[in-house]
Specification:
GO terms for molecular function: ATP binding; microtubule binding; microtubule motor activity. The protein is of the alpha/beta class. 31% of the residues lie in helices and 20% in strands. The protein has a domain of 295 residues: 3-Layer(aba) Sandwich (Kinesin), CATH 3.40.850. Helix 6 crosses helix 10. Bound molecules: adenosine-5'-triphosphate.
Length: 451
């Protein structure tokens, strides 16, 4: 898996090359009151003269249609969902010099947490004994399944500097080297890749699918002394004329053999969210910190608005274009994507106000409702490829505009975005394509790492 990417690209924020995700000033996002190869699976279809089943055993009745069945696991996932944001709080273990202090943040139950006399309830709370594997099970596994089912899916990590965002998203740099590729400390991103590839291989590799009844997959090859090698349970149909054959082929197209699912995954490690006055930033770093802060402040503002809109049901202008960060992430925020937000907090007493601020941010994020739909196209291959070209062009334009544009304050937006977000985006396309007796999976991974 790792060989797909050059290690430089994949290396997370090591202390050495980590982007200076510099702290913020008093433009805290929480300033608003909070309460509230293409795989070729040999598909075998025999066209016989006469509808007979011998020597094969009878096949089970038709269960599901291919359109909801291209990918295993998809059958239980609805094609559209008014999805709330899944919010997980992760409390990191105390560092050596924090050990004496005791923890200011307490996990109360599996989904509630307290800080001072404030109690918050989220979807899950991971505490100091929670492992990387635990967090992967909470957010990584569902993300992979959603993505395979055709939903765009995002994970954001939010929290002050040093609260454990990068550790959660990537793991420590030592866990990402090839020798440690099975380290327990590896974070969400490598685990998501591993899982995605293994699921895709599991689904498509070496599987024989009955293209006259695509619900029948992973059929077994048998050998019979009399009839030779055959595929067990394969559908056989009588055909007398070319027209009969064409009708069978058409039926398969109608059944969705030509469907394609496309989904995007965004894995986002945001800049630290602390107030700038708590840092010693000066000069250019101070200015840069101000810009980052502004972006995160706009993100906070956007999240407030989206939360209000979701709760009140009233339409209003959503200011995605107020900052590059919100523009870049708009699909994940209130749009066509499932979103999980991991809010990382430090247990330290010294970080109490920042941790409280993070939990309030998390509470507001919880109110957002996204509208995720399965991105499925059933056009013919040419149309589908056209769509892919269009998406790639859009992406190129976006990347180019990020590179060239300049913010009002004179900062390059590319630089600005780089400092503000560490984003890994990839697209997955799964399709079964004509010609008829061949099943092809197209995968395209696009790596956009901004750091
Ligand atoms: N759950 C954890 N278990 C063990 N160590 C952790 C955990 N979370 C964080 N750490 C350690 O705490 C330190 C700070 O974590 P990390 O670099 O992930 O913070 P961050 O929120 O990404 O900070 P920044 O905003 O500066 O990028 C690192 O040394 C990291 O290894």
């Amino acid at each position: 898996m790792k060989s797909l990417f050059n290690s430089k690209t994949l290396t997370p924020n090591s202390q050495k090359n980590k982007p200076p995700k510099v702290p913020k000033e008093n433009l805290d996002p929480n300033s608003v009151p909070s309460d509230s190869s293409p795989y070729k699976s040999p598909g075998f279809s025999k066209l016989f003269s006469g509808k007979s089943r011998s020597p094969l055993p009878p096949r089970p009745p038709l269960k599901r249609k291919l359109s909801s069945e291209i990918l295993e696991g998809a059958a239980t996932i609805p094609t559209a969902s008014d999805s709330g944001v899944q919010v997980i709080v992760r409390i990191r273990p105390p560092s050596k010099d924090e050990e004496e202090e005791g923890s200011v943040v307490q996990k109360l139950t599996g989904n509630s947490v307290s800080i001072s006399d404030h109690t918050f309830t989220f979807d899950s709370v991971a505490d100091t004994v929670s492992t990387q594997e635990d967090v992967f099970h909470l957010v990584g596994l569902p993300l992979v399944e959603n993505c395979l089912a055709g939903f765009n899916s995002s994970i954001f990590a939010y929290g002050q500097t040093g609260s454990g965002k990068t550790y959660t998203m990537w793991g420590p740099p030592t866990a990402l080297s090839d020798e440690n590729s099975l380290s327990n400390e590896r974070g969400l991103t490598p685990r998501v890749f591993e899982r995605l590839f293994s699921r895709i291989n599991e689904i498509y590799n070496e599987q024989i699918t009955d293209l006259l009844d695509p619900t029948q997959r992973n059929l077994q090859i048998r050998e019979d002394v009399g009839t030779g090698v055959y595929v067990e349970s394969l559908t056989e149909e009588f055909v007398y004329t070319l027209k009969d054959v064409n009708q069978l082929l058409m039926k398969n197209v109608e059944d969705g053999l030509n469907a394609a699912r496309m989904s995007r995954i965004n894995l986002v490690d945001l800049a630290g969210s602390e107030r700038q006055k708590h840092t010693k930033a000066a000069g250019d770093r101070l200015k840069e910190a101000g810009n980052i802060n502004k972006s995160l402040s706009q993100l906070g503002n956007l999240i407030n608005i989206l939360g209000e809109v979701s709760q009140s049901g009233k339409q209003r202008h959503i200011p995605y274009r107020d900052s590059k960060l919100t523009f870049l992430l708009q699909e994940s925020l209130g749009g066509n994507a499932k979103l999980a937000m991991i809010c990382a907090v430090s247990p330290s007493v010294r970080c109490k106000s920042e941790s409280l601020s993070t939990l309030r941010f998390a509470q507001r994020a919880k109110a957002i409702k996204n509208k995720a739909v399965v991105n499925e196209t059933t056009q013919d291959d040419v149309n589908m490829l056209r769509e892919q070209v269009r998406l790639l062009r859009d992406e190129l334009v976006r990347i180019k505009s990020n590179r060239g544009a300049t913010m009002g304050d004179g900062y390059s937006t590319a630089e600005h975005a780089r400092r503000t977000v560490n984003l890994l985006r990839m697209s997955l396309t799964c399709t079964t394509a004509m010609p008829f007796i061949r099943m092809t999976v197209m995968k395209r991974w696009r790596l956009m790492k901004m750091m």
